UniProtKB/TrEMBL annotation:
Residues 87-158 form the Flagellar hook protein FlgE/F/G-like D1 domain. This is Flagellar basal-body rod protein FlgF. The keyword rRNA-binding does not apply. Keywords: Bacterial flagellum, Cell projection, Cilium, Flagellum. Pfam families: Flg_bb_rod, Flg_bbr_C, LlgE_F_G_D1.
Amino acid sequence: MLRSMYSGVSGMKGFQTKLDVIGNNIANVNTIGFKKSTINFQDLLSQNMSGSGVNPMQVGLGVQTSAVNVIHTPGSAMTTGVGTDLAIMGDGFFVVQDPNATGAAGRYLTRAGNFVVDAQGDLVTTQGYSVLSSTGNPIKIDPALYDSFNITRDGQVWVTPKGGGAETKLTDGLIGISNPPNPTGLRKFGGSLYEMTAAAGGTTNPSTAAAATSMISAGMLEMSNVDLTEEFTEMIVAQRGFQANSRTITTSDEILQEVVNLKR
């Protein structure tokens, strides 16, 4: 069989994967805190045809996916006016924890700051995960003790006691932020959450927004960083690439047919 046929098959598979990545980006164009992905390719193998001559004589045997990277550029900020909606201005992630887990287990990172205060007064995600403070503890705003609260740009929760009184800082109420050195190394867990990995080079132990040289904006949410213009352009490239590789297979098939027809 012709090598070009197998090269064309590998190219079609590669561009199909590229379309999968593009489709996922477009599907999440309005997902809060979503980060788009890009795909890179590399040549598969090269077959040595001859060792004679000055330069090596090699024929490539196709393409393969080398990496699918998550691009952690910031998304646009959307004003909501809801006090528990938080957006990170700068680097870092909110640290949340599965309420059924203990210690560092069940901790995840997220840029989606659409939090709520539940009936027990815990600041949680929409999935019910606890938002952790800079000391690694769940943030609790007990409605039986406080009339209202607000969150400052450094992530500190300030509360107003019931019955009036001066506004004070909530004990252990500083929003925790984790800033891994290589956020591209994080593994997507689903639900706009990321798992820490060795490739990311960090830990799930939260710090502060100041330590991450970031600020927290209350009443705002970070939207997806997907650019539809870019995605549709890449979709055209992927479609044409897929068609070109399919034409390679068709041409190879026609050549094989001619070879078969030599013997009549």
